[in-house]
Please model this.
Amino acid sequence: MPKISAPTVAEHRSRRRDELIRAATDELLESGVDAVTLARVGKRIGLARSSVYEYFNSATDLLAEIALSSFAEWTGEIERALAGSASAAERLDGYILTSLRLVAEGKHDIADALGGTRLPDYHRREVIELHVALMSPLRDAVDQMGVENPTLMVELIQGMVEAGSRRIARGDDYMRVARATISLVHSGLVPVAPAESTPALRIPR
Model:
């Protein structure tokens, strides 16, 4: 039986799998998508390619796991940042601020490195579901603020966050970008107008 580095075989395999994902992420960020092969990733942690196949069927599966892990980490960061926010407006501001902070910390580099990587349909569905979950705090905050066209507003706000992300990637201070983004977002949020009262029916005498 192969030597294991954990109390159980299951835990050993889980640790080894995490090691492979981290190694693949490092390879991706250092050398790009094409450098992520099972052989190169295995070599980084002293594992033969044949052994890597025990955990992943292909480099594409490994790239998908990088994307899924990145989404999960990003979502967890946002959820923790918003945990103490009382109002919908605070959660909206927190979503914008945290998203841009994560970009400044380099957390978006993985998404940029993956670029237009094509994943199998079953992996693509998982990524889409995680992207929906990632944006749910933004959708919930906008819905609770009672603004006109909430679906449109969510898309526009996310577009502003993405524009801010590009500015940060070019070297702008993330707090400066965050303050400007939050200010613009709030100035554009239009409350739903109260329903017009129905005029009383006048009955001729």
About this structure: Residues 80 and 187 are 27 Å apart (CA to CA). The chain has two domains: 7-56, 64-188. The longest helix spans residues 59-82.
